[in-house]
Write a structure and sequence with these properties.
This protein has one helix spanning about 70-85; strands spanning about 10-15, 20, 25-30, 30-40, 45-50, 55-60, 65. By secondary structure, the chain is of the alpha+beta class. The strands form 2 sheets. Strands 1, 4, 5, 6 and 7 form a 5-stranded antiparallel beta sheet that branches. Strands 2-3 form a two-stranded antiparallel ribbon.
């Protein structure tokens, strides 16, 4: 029996003015690493960290249902939203 690895995407992005809103520490800004992962219950979890740091934070609005376009499209939408800034949340 083989176990499938959950689908996930990870990219680095520079947050736009106003940064990204987290549930844990509020707004974070600057160079960030974003991970979007499929959870066993079919929702997507979006986590963010300062690039190179150890601590991960939950992006506000996560978890959320995976949209019809799939996890990759959600991840791309998250990246664009964070690039825009304005206390970005999961779209």
């Amino acid at each position: 029996m083989t176990s499938e690895q959950p689908e996930h995407y990870q990219d680095e992005v520079t947050a736009g003015p106003g940064g990204a809103m987290t549930d844990d520490v509020g707004v974070i800004t600057g160079d960030l690493t974003i991970t979007t992962a499929q959870r066993p219950d079919g929702t997507a979890e979006v986590r963010v960290q300062y690039t190179g740091a150890e601590e991960w934070y939950t992006l506000t609005g996560s978890p959320r249902p995976v949209p019809p376009g799939g996890l990759k499209s959600l991840h791309q939408a998250v990246l664009e939203t964070i690039r825009t800034g304005g206390a970005a949340e999961v779209p």
